From TrEMBL:
Keywords: Acyltransferase, Transferase. Residues 5-140 form the N-acetyltransferase domain. PANTHER family: AMINOALKYLPHOSPHONATE N-ACETYLTRANSFERASE-RELATED-RELATED. Pfam families: Acetyltransf_1. GO terms for molecular function: acyltransferase activity, transferring groups other than amino-acyl groups. The lineage of its organism: Bacteria, Pseudomonadati, Pseudomonadota, Alphaproteobacteria, Hyphomicrobiales. It comes from the Bacteria. This is GNAT family acetyltransferase. InterPro entries: Acyl_CoA_acyltransferase, Bact_Acetyltransf, GNAT_dom.
Length: 140
């Protein structure tokens, strides 16, 4: 039995646990420094990092959320493998959606790496759809 997930904004004390979660979930890649990502996003007016905690386990889930004044974005959606299939991924995404909705943002988007095929089914299951857009990028 997994218990009830509590969701709140990340605090400094969560930094180690959330980085460990992201590594365990395969979300840390050489071109993104997790500490820099946390510093840029956590506790800002237009962005935050939400963590899901269980009383007996601490941080077991996360979602980074933010908006650019037009669209909302989710990143680092993660659930500890030991606590998957309990609905926590859905709850974290819904919390991110609510965060955006509360700020007047009408559409949420996220990027799925081409190699991450398994996660597409998860997003489709919770009501998301592939966007008929091409994403362009440039490193600054
Ligand atoms: C994707 C992830 C967050 C899902 O977390 P989770 O807590 O297991 O998901 P949930 O239990 O909330 O699942 C919600 C629904 O999606 C389904 N689902 C979850 N993962 C799935 C998968 N890989 N394939 C198909 N369906 C999936 C569940 O069965 C559930 O369906 P239901 O409505 O019939 O109950 C988790 O697997 C994860 O952390 N993956 C690694 C990190 C990652 O890739 N993040 C996304 C970056 S874009």
């Amino acid at each position: 039995m997994d218990g009830t997930l509590s969701i709140r904004a990340l605090t400094d004390a969560d930094r180690g646990s959330v980085k460990a979660l992201w590594i365990t979930c395969g979300l840390v890649v050489p071109y993104n420094d997790p500490d820099a990502d946390i510093d840029l996003a956590a506790g800002r007016e237009n962005s935050d990092i939400l963590v899901g905690t269980l009383a007996d386990h601490g941080v077991v889930a996360s979602a980074m959320v933010g908006h650019d004044g037009h669209r909302g974005w989710l990143y680092y959606v993660a659930v500890d493998p030991a606590h998957r299939d309990a609905g926590f991924g859905r709850v974290m995404v819904r919390a991110g959606e609510d965060w955006l909705r509360a700020r007047g943002i009408r559409k949420a988007q996220l990027l799925v790496r081409k190699t991450n095929t398994a996660v597409r089914a998860f997003y489709e299951r919770i009501g998301w759809a592939e966007s008929p857009r091409t994403v362009m990028e440039r490193w600054l």
